[in-house]
Design a protein that fits this description.
The structure is a homodimer.
Chain A: E1 10-15, H1 49-67, E2 68-78, H2 83-92, E3 96-106, E4 121-128, H3 140-146, E5 157-160, H4 183-193, E6 199-202, H5 209-216, E7 220-223, H6 228-240
Parallel strand pairs in A: 1-2, 1-6, 3-5, 6-7
Antiparallel strand pairs in A: 2-4, 3-4
Helix pairs in contact in A: 1-2, 4-5
Chain B binds a DNA duplex through loops.
Chain lengths: ~240, ~240
DNA sequence: GCAAGGCATGAATCTACAT
DNA sequence: GATGTAGATTCATGCCTTG
């Protein structure tokens, strides 16, 4: 999918790949009031076992690494279902980690069957092209300022999940994309590790959140998305987006 | 190392394996006041590349899985250096994840070069023997009670690092073990997922924190440790330990 | 005895540039 | 590419000393 891109051409990659949730088919989880929870069971999250998922993961990560500038950085977000596989594959490709960041999800779903701890976070891996990479962007002072004049930590990322007026919905009221990420999370990513004018790539664009934030912050952006309905959604969203306030 | 153990014999495993930090050799990190940071560069954290580390990891995890009861659970702690590799290997062996838990480290080292986010957490993976495992212990109500009558989340684990009078030191004042874990963290693990009388195994016993907590909570324990100096240390520590208050 | 301030220290893949 | 050096930079905690 990235074959057309030249080597070493992108400053920042933000990737939100399929999580491969492996939910039991046919079973539906219900809230105590009887209402149903709509699971992520779209075709794009279906794989033929770990091997298939790993092959898919290796393919897109290799291309991302190839087109990343030696001064660029890559972010990948995931959950415990997939992030460990993704992280090991990244390391095996030679991507060198800078941090793993915990997004604490405010307003996340409580645990309904009381047999596990409540899932309340997602993990972001932040890395450079390879071990010898130098000169990547890290806006230390800006983040420190944003964090009450204290160093920003890898555990200071608390943001509400995407809901309310930010959440895109069709005329039927059903959410347009099952895993839309909050603007503030992506904004934090771009503010941390990019400058104005940088080229930002999102290889799994979905509803276009990365594009919207990039536009608002004066970064150039490129998005890739397999499903036409999401491409249409994202384009419309970016066009209509104006900076609030 | 676990060859002598029968299959399906252990209720809980807590493993704190080498992290394979890959620190630059010879370079010393200094605080702004000129004092030196003592790095973890012990022989037991040295490996011949990722392949070597993966082989080591696969070996001990396979044995842990073998001796774990079908109703038992396993915890593994690590950082971004190693936890993704360890996690993928666990999944490949068929261990089924229940949660990944974020230990927020109160009092962790700040970032001195200001080129990354501050490392402020470690990650614990909690899993069962395999996907079809049932009947594991999860003390939901107890944890809820401990957490102010709210469900315990995978991000609610904030504990201070091991220091002060809890930190074991030799007569020279130098810490006896470079990576001693805080009692409260291990206590939380045991309270979450074990009952009185359960058999708890720590395959990397180190300074014996798991043993001390297990004893205090009325669990039976088994510890494995390669270095004799740590075995001696741990035995002495457990013998002398009495429950405070 | 108590309060305030000094000081030590923690699993660290902690950089950039010149030769 | 490898090696050496200059240069900029830190936070929370707990023990201990001082007043």
């Amino acid at each position: 999918m990235l074959k057309g891109f030249p080597d070493n051409s992108v400053d920042l990659i933000f990737a939100d790949p399929p999580y491969y949730l492996q939910l039991p088919k046919g079973k539906r989880l219900k809230r105590p009031d009887g209402s149903e929870i709509i699971p992520v069971d779209d075709a794009w999250d279906q794989f033929d076992g770990y091997e298939d998922y790993d092959r898919f993961t290796t393919d897109w990560l290799k291309e991302c690494q190839r087109i990343l500038k030696p001064t660029g950085t890559i972010w990948v977000i995931g959950m415990y279902h997939n992030i460990f596989r993704v992280g090991k594959i990244m390391q095996d490709l030679g991507i060198w980690f800078l941090n793993d960041v915990i997004w604490v999800k405010i307003g996340a779903l409580p645990n309904l069957n009381c047999r596990r701890l409540t899932n309340n976070h997602e993990t972001l891996i932040w890395g450079v092209k390879d071990k010898k990479s130098k000169g990547y962007t890290f806006n230390y002072q800006l983040l420190k300022k944003m964090n009450g004049d204290k160093q920003m930590k890898d555990t200071d990322w608390s943001f509400g999940i995407c809901r309310g007026s930010e959440r895109l919905r069709g005329k039927d009221g059903i959410k347009s994309h099952p895993t839309q990420k909050p603007l503030k999370l992506i904004q934090q990513v771009l503010l941390t590790s990019s400058k104005k004018g940088d080229i930002v790539l999102d290889p799994f664009m979905g509803s276009g959140t990365t594009a919207v934030v990039a536009k608002a912050l004066g970064r150039k952006w490129v998005g890739i998305e397999r499903e036409k309905k999401y491409v249409d959604l994202a384009i419309k969203r970016v066009e209509n987006f104006t900076i609030a306030k």
